[in-house]
User: What shape does this take?
Amino acid sequence: MPSLRTNLLFLCMCSLASGYHWPSPHYDVLEALLYEGRRVDGSNMASLQHPCKLRGSTQASIGAEWLRLAYHDSATHDSLAGTGGLDASIAFELDREENIGDGMHQTLSDFETFSNKYVSRADVIALGTTFAVASCGGPIIPFRGGRIDTYSAGPPGVPEPHQDLPTHTALFKRQGFDETDMITLVACGHTLGGVRSHDFPTIVPPNSDPTISNVNLFDSTHAFDNNVITQYLDGTTENPLVTVGNTTLRSDLRIFSSDGNATFSRLTLSEMFMQSCSNVLERMLNTVPSYVTLTEPIDLLHAKVASSHLTIEKGEFVFKVTFRLTQPIGTTIKSTRTVKILWCDRYGSNGDCQQHANSALPATLSQDDPEISPVTYHLGLFFVRYDFVLPIEPLLSISLFWFEVDEGDGTPPRYYDNNSTGYIVAQDQLLYIPSLSSVNLHGRNDTLKTYDIVAAVRSNAEPSRVYLDAFDNAMENYLPPLNISIDMKRNHSIPDAGGFRFYSASLNDTGTQLTVDLHTVINGHLFTEDFMQTFFIDENIPYTPPTAVQSTIIPAPSPSATSSSGTDLGEYRDIPIHSSILLRLLPLLIAALIIYC
Ligand code: HEM
Ligand SMILES: *[C@@H]1O[C@H](CO)[C@@H](O)[C@H](O)[C@H]1NC(C)=O
Ligand SMILES: *[C@@H]1O[C@H](CO)[C@@H](O)[C@H](O)[C@H]1NC(C)=O
Ligand SMILES: *[C@@H]1O[C@H](CO)[C@@H](O)[C@H](O)[C@H]1NC(C)=O
Ligand SMILES: *[C@@H]1O[C@H](CO)[C@@H](O)[C@H](O)[C@H]1NC(C)=O
Ligand SMILES: *[C@@H]1O[C@H](CO)[C@@H](O)[C@H](O)[C@H]1NC(C)=O
Ligand SMILES: *[C@@H]1O[C@H](CO)[C@@H](O)[C@H](O)[C@H]1NC(C)=O
Ligand SMILES: *[C@@H]1O[C@H](CO)[C@@H](O)[C@H](O)[C@H]1NC(C)=O
Ligand SMILES: *[C@@H]1O[C@H](CO)[C@@H](O)[C@H](O)[C@H]1NC(C)=O
Assistant: This one.
């Protein structure tokens, strides 16, 4: 008769198998760009602007340019018809008078390379505002993803300074903002940046040197603050849209005073200003066509499996995973801390940890610069990462894994195990092999890239098809994305290794953020490796050999240990995974025994 323990684990594994989705790439990718400020390959978007930088060439506020572009993209939304909004159509609308300005072109070029399959160009535009506002001292605007891009111009309708108040009120109303929202939104926009003589020479007179554009700021600072309001109210404002000689162009004056200063009087309190701006700017960024469903707000994950995949490197079958933890700024990691990964074999007599778990220490520990994202910086946190490279026996493989963080100071270790479910390795039949894949640059200015993508399938499997979906929406000049499906062919020039056979395909791309989804069909089952990156191991990413493996006996369930729920500090637990699973299943088993007997 199998042991009680085996039965429990068997039960447990059955219950885990259905409807399980891990990882959650859409959320993970949005979370990484928001809280790490950068692409997966390390190129940082936030640092183009943070900390509240001025552009070297023009001395204009980069954050102001980013915010203005987001407003102009969203302003053509028609809330009744459910059309327009933040959909990146602005990229095709810059020839319009209403969208005049060098800052608009520079912003689009800042943003060009940060979109991908899970982050639309419109999401990047929205993120730009989130970064800029946080970076310049404003609130952290809650961020949702899921905007859908269009690849052509939409209808016009961005407000212009010469229009009268009823026109502006109607345009804001069409977008879904009432008069109070309008006053608030304009003030929250016009706290950053200013008006330029090159763009509006009738508002800001040109310089004696016509090559330099004069910028007259809306208020006396570059910071996101309510000076735009207090200076208007105390009469010291130099806001060009309030003070310009030609009264027709005083659009801010008309809007600011349209309710007898009632809204502005409330916003003289800084906290009120920050809160109100967060609300209206969030609504502005979430102005989308009616066919778009945005994601839930993207919250910071205090403990995150930042990347994980099975692959083959130098002929060895390995599992690579990065575990990311937060650390308060100004504190250091305890030198006595050890962070271990634990995992279960997938096959064999020890499958699903029937006898023991395997464990290993991280291959490397790295700490991020606290300034990588102004959002995380404002939360007072930075990231530390533990990179693991595990040697995996092809015949045993890996089914699930979890982490143990032991501060080494006598406090009990914490277990990060996805609330006792463990992080499940969805499949081990199809692998992506970045270490054998490559890219060649050619064409004019290296803008054409030819990729050789290599995948591997278990030698004992008979796939009916191996193919990839390639996607890149980070195209030069916001051209339509690459979005193609290609069959992969058996590649006999690569000898079998680690119990796998190799397949490859070649493709051309002119964008900068190609990702591939690999697929294979084996016995009618589809196996997928989603959102694989195409920057490859080279001089910049040194090869890390796999670490040594230990074996850990999983403690038997102890009646004194009680189940603990996740906390906001990363959902850690203070008892190891299997004992807690066993504990949770104990009542079930007792019930089953009672029925059986
Ligand atoms: C009636 C509505 C509005 C009018 C007529 C208007 C007009 C203008 C004008 C004429 C400029 C100068 C642009 C340049 O010189 O290149 C400007 C700049 C700016 N606007 Fe507005 N605006 C309006 C509403 C808004 C709103 C709602 C926001 C955002 C929430 C916003 C954000 C900005 C920002 C950040 C700048 C500075 C850009 C920079 O310095 O590069 N505006 N606006
Ligand atoms: C004021 O600006 C409006 C709109 O641009 C223009 O039509 C008008 O001629 C200007 N008035 C003067 C006196 O320059
Ligand atoms: C609003 O404030 C401005 C600037 O202080 C002032 O000139 C104006 O008279 C005020 N309007 C009302 C209706 O109080
Ligand atoms: C974790 O599990 C506990 C109890 O099993 C549950 O109350 C809690 O909501 C779970 N948390 C998450 C994030 O799933
Ligand atoms: C965690 O487990 C739940 C099921 O309990 C699953 O839905 C979720 O996707 C898992 N998340 C991760 C990150 O493994
Ligand atoms: C096999 O893969 C290599 C990349 O490792 C590639 O250079 C080569 O062209 C591929 N051969 C075939 C026949 O696809
Ligand atoms: C290639 O680069 C040169 C110099 O950097 C530039 O003048 C030229 O316009 C570029 N060509 C293309 C096609 O981008
Ligand atoms: C890419 O192509 C697939 C299949 O044709 C389609 O369903 C999907 O909407 C396309 N994605 C984009 C962003 O165009
Ligand atoms: C990629 O482009 C080059 C140059 O135009 C061409 O010779 C080659 O056949 C293309 N490769 C693929 C896979 O389309």
Summary: The chain has a mean pLDDT of 90.
